[in-house]
Structures are given as C-alpha cells and as structure tokens.
Structure to design on (261 residues):
C-alpha cells in the first residue's frame, strides 16, 4: 500500500503535464501539498457542462453540481478565487489504484481535443466602437 | 455523464458530436449577423446569415454554452434557411424547445438564441444596425 500514493501522484503529474500547455489552463489547489489522486483543472473559454458532455467516455466530474440541473458553481472553487464562470469551467479528475499510464495518456489527449474543439466555436469578442 | 445520458435527446447528442453549422461563412457575399448573451452568464451566441434575394441562404453560428444551447444554435442554422427578415423577427424559442426536447431549466438559454436572431433582423440590410 505504501507504494500506491507515489505511483498515483506520478500519474496525476503525468495527467497535468499533458494538459498544462493548453492556453488558459490553470491548476486548482496547491502545486505540491495535495491529495495524490485528484487533479482539478480550470479551462478558461469552455463551458463546463458541454465539456463534460463531450468527455462522456471519461469518468470526470465538473467543478459544479454536475449531477443535477443546478447551475450553481462550486463554493470551494469560488473560495479558491475562481469566478463563477471559471468555477463552471473546471474538471475534477480522479485517479485510483487501478488507473494505468495508458488511461492517463488517453484522458489527457481526449481533454485536449475537446477543449480545443469547443474553444474553436466560441464567438470572438465584440468589436469596439 | 455517459454517452446516452437521458438529460439529452438523440438530436442534441448528434449535434454535439458533429456541431453542424459551427464556424463562419465565407467572406464576400451579402451577410447579416446577430449576437446575444454574455459568457459570464453562461451563454453567448453569434449567428451569421448569408443572404440571397432577401432571404437567408446559409447560416453559421459560434457559441459558448451548454449542450442544449449549442445544439439549438446548430439546429437554427438549418431552420432559418429560406426565411426573410420578418421570419427572423417572428421566430420563437419554443420551436427549438419542442424540436430538441429541451428541459424547462434551459428555456432561458433559448431566449438568448431568440434575442440573437432578432438582433440579426434589426441588422438586416436597410434596417437600423447594431454592433455585433
């Protein structure tokens, strides 16, 4: 059992390294003092429910109450300084004892694909006067 | 959430997979655009309508929002082809709610789409324009 937390933490870092280069992507929580099996990441410019929908092949959760029709953003993320909109654009990814490196690499690739696809259709800023 | 999540009808799921109508129209032809919503409020959309003989000949959308919102914007890009300015002015969000089985909790998002369509009607060539 003692070997599990470092192994899972290494997988979590592998997942983060696959996501961190996406523009507008921010890690939530402390960079080092954190639970080994959870990665919370905010993706600016992507609506959370649509991102969850697009990632139906992954077991990820939104930073908000995704299992209900509530649109309330996570009070934890707001307490960490995220705006309501950014709190809604957050994914919480959990890794466990049976998570493999291949699954993590697949998950990172899929998240990058879908974040990019949904960002590509966002309206441009309103033109100035 | 799973691929067959009952909160989303089959047409919403298909449109979210394929996003038909997303993007921009080629530049050059007569066009009119309409915009509504606010990303900070969770829903924003911009439509471009290509015009021929006073009617919509093609449409594209860009949007930020939930799956029902994106799917309805995609659906509208097909639904509004053939309509003139008065058709855009008269379009009602309830039509999309019925066509895509949108739950009542999302009706407000559809009103944002209606606002964008009516904004395009106001921007119609010869009308009073707004910045989009």
């Amino acid at each position: 059992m003692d070997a599990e937390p470092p192994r899972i933490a290494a997988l979590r870092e592998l997942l983060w390294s696959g996501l961190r280069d996406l523009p507008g992507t921010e890690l939530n929580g402390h960079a080092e003092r954190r639970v080994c099996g959870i990665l919370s990441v905010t993706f600016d410019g992507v609506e959370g429910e649509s991102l969850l929908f697009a990632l139906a092949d992954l077991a990820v959760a939104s930073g908000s109450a995704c299992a209900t029709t509530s649109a309330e953003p996570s009070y934890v993320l707001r307490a960490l300084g995220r705006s309501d909109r950014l709190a809604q654009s957050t994914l919480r990814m959990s890794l466990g004892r049976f998570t493999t490196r291949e699954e993590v690499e697949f998950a990172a690739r899929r998240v990058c694909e879908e974040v990019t696809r949904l960002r590509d259709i966002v309206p441009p800023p309103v033109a100035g006067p | 959430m799973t691929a067959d999540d009952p909160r989303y009808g089959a047409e919403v799921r298909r449109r979210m997979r394929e996003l038909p109508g997303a993007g921009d129209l080629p530049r050059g032809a007569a066009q009119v655009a309409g915009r509504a919503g606010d990303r900070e409020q969770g829903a924003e959309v911009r439509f471009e309508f290509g015009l021929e003989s006073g009617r919509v000949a093609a449409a594209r959308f860009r949007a930020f929002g939930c799956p029902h919102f994106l799917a309805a914007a995609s659906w509208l890009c097909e639904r509004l082809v053939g309509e003139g300015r008065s058709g855009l002015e008269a379009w009602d969000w309830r039509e999309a709610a019925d066509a895509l089985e949108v739950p009542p909790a999302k009706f407000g998002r559809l009103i944002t789409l209606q606002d964008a369509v009516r904004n395009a009607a106001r921007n119609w060539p010869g009308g009073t324009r707004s910045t989009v």
Summary: Strands of chain A lie at 25-27, 38-43, 60-62, 90-94. Chain A touches chain B at residues 45, 47, 49-50, 52-57, 66, 69, 71, 83-85, 88, 117, 120-124, 126-127, 129 (CB under 8 Å). The first strand of chain A starts at residue 25 and ends at 27. The domain at 4-119 of chain A is CATH 3.90.1150.10 (Aspartate Aminotransferase, domain 1).
